[in-house]
Design a protein that fits this description.
The chain is α+β, with helices and mostly antiparallel strands and 79 residues long. 23% of the residues lie in helices and 35% in strands. The chain starts with 10 loop residues before the first strand and ends with a strand.
């Protein structure tokens, strides 16, 4: 889900526990494990204890980290 609330085609989003909360396409157990690891790394990247939503674009394999900064929602793409 993008910062404005729209679902993105071919994307997977997780909550703070790495659980899938919205997705497009089929997921496997291996995907869930990878998403949890990515979520953990994103929290370290942002140096925060706040939950960080993580989206993976299955078409481009880009990660999108979504978080709040001073009441603003931002999305950061990582290749």
């Amino acid at each position: 889900m993008m910062a404005d609330g729209r679902n993105t085609k071919g994307a997977v989003c997780t909550d703070s526990n790495g659980l899938c909360i919205t997705s497009s396409g089929d997921l496997t157990e291996a995907d869930a494990g990878s998403l949890h690891a990515i979520h953990t790394l994103s929290r370290q990247l942002f140096d925060t204890d706040q939950p960080v939503a993580v989206c993976i674009d299955s078409t481009t394999s880009q990660s999108i980290y979504v978080r709040k900064v001073n009441e603003n929602v931002v999305a950061v793409k990582k290749g």
